[in-house]
Amino acid sequence: MARRSDHSREQLQQMAISAAIAILNEHGVAGLSARKVAKSIGYTVGTLYLVFKNLDELLLYVNAATLDDLQRAIMQEANVHTDPAQILKTMALAYLRYAQQHSARWSLLFSHRLPANQPIPAWFEQKITSVFDGVKMPLQQLHPELNESALLQATRELWSGVHGACDLGLSDKLNLGGRFKLEELIESFVENYLFGFAKSKGIA
Amino acid sequence: MARRSDHSREQLQQMAISAAIAILNEHGVAGLSARKVAKSIGYTVGTLYLVFKNLDELLLYVNAATLDDLQRAIMQEANVHTDPAQILKTMALAYLRYAQQHSARWSLLFSHRLPANQPIPAWFEQKITSVFDGVKMPLQQLHPELNESALLQATRELWSGVHGACDLGLSDKLNLGGRFKLEELIESFVENYLFGFAKSKGIA
């Protein structure tokens, strides 16, 4: 067991987040516990709870790191194409790929709820908004005439479909019957939604 | 402790499924265990495993019951309107309501994975297809010219968006910033998707 003075508060937090991510990757959401994280970094559970209010707060930090990674994975695709619709399709496929490759982290991000008396901090909400802002850019390029509110709504609607297809597809709930690949379904969805969005706004 | 001979195999299965649902409703996904189910029906865990291969099989049966309930909740709305687009919107809102009112069962349905060596039985896949078939009907009314394959795809794309909006909205991941209600976003999504689908098929 390391002594408390061996590491600063910030170092301890970072070590715990990294250890939690490694445990998640290896053992899944059900395999993650405060005891395992503490053991992995060589401290007691008591010390872990000096730097995080509770396990939920540690999970919130793990999810924040996942949101950062997810955003990087999506944004890497933003410069590959010049056509905004093509960019959105490529981003959607990058989101699927991230969900496939980091299934436990993806699952924790969307299944974890803070206790009712622990509100979501503003800095965490800002991370979610940042991910949507990345999706908003090509949508804005496609429809420069839209105001902020319409863009916000369209971004959420479009990404709901992408997220839903990933969630249903990866939990074997789409029953595509071998007729379509999930990737094809997602690309077709993005196309259909963009068509419809333009039409409903009287743009197309 | 009841004796094994007190109930038939089928009765034991039904009792265990009902007990598991009651535990889920009260204590959430994390609060569900074979031990608690066995205790609740007055049998040993050993007896429970005589009627279910493992906890995963019990959870599969719980999820099957949830799919039945979910389908009933959606289909109740199918006859309220005559306009197919309106029916689809009402079904989408019924899906959201079910997710809100039965959050633990909804969450288990989409988070549970069978072990890799335990394939999803055909009767369970059929239940998923039945839910989609309910959604397919109004879509078919709207576009009678579509073939089976195009309908299957459109149903999955449309419902991916509805599911994704529910999943993201209920896990506080949409950041609507108080500008829209989740219900409004879902209705607008259905409208936009239907517009776009018609347009991309050259129907509108």
Per-chain topology:
Two copies of one chain form a homodimer.
Chain A: H1 9-27, H2 34-41, H3 45-51, H4 55-75, H5 84-101, H6 103-111, H7 122-142, H8 148-170, H9 182-200
Helix pairs in contact in A: 1-2, 1-4, 4-5, 4-6, 4-7, 5-6, 5-7, 5-8, 5-9, 7-8, 8-9
CATH superfamily of the largest domain in chain A: Tetracycline Repressor, domain 2
Radius of gyration of chain A, taken over Cα atoms and rounded to an integer in Å = 20 Å
**What kind of oligomer do you see?**
homodimer
Strand content range of chain A: under 5%
Instruction: State the largest interface.
Output: A-B, 48 and 48 residues
Helix tally of chain A equals 9
Work out the helicity level of chain A. Answer: over 70%
Helix-and-strand structural type of chain A: mainly alpha
- Rough shape of chain A? elongated
CATH architecture of the largest domain in chain A: Orthogonal Bundle
Average pLDDT taken over every residue of chain A: 91
Integer tally of domains of chain A: 2
What string, H for helix and E for strand, traces the elements of chain A in order?
A: HHHHHHHHH
How many E-type strands of chain A?
0
Q: What low-confidence regions of chain A span 5 or more consecutive residues with pLDDT below 50? A: none
What CATH calls the topology of the largest domain in chain A is Tetracycline Repressor, domain 2
Q: What top-tier CATH class of the largest domain in chain A fits best? A: Mainly Alpha
Termini Cα gap of chain A: 65 Å
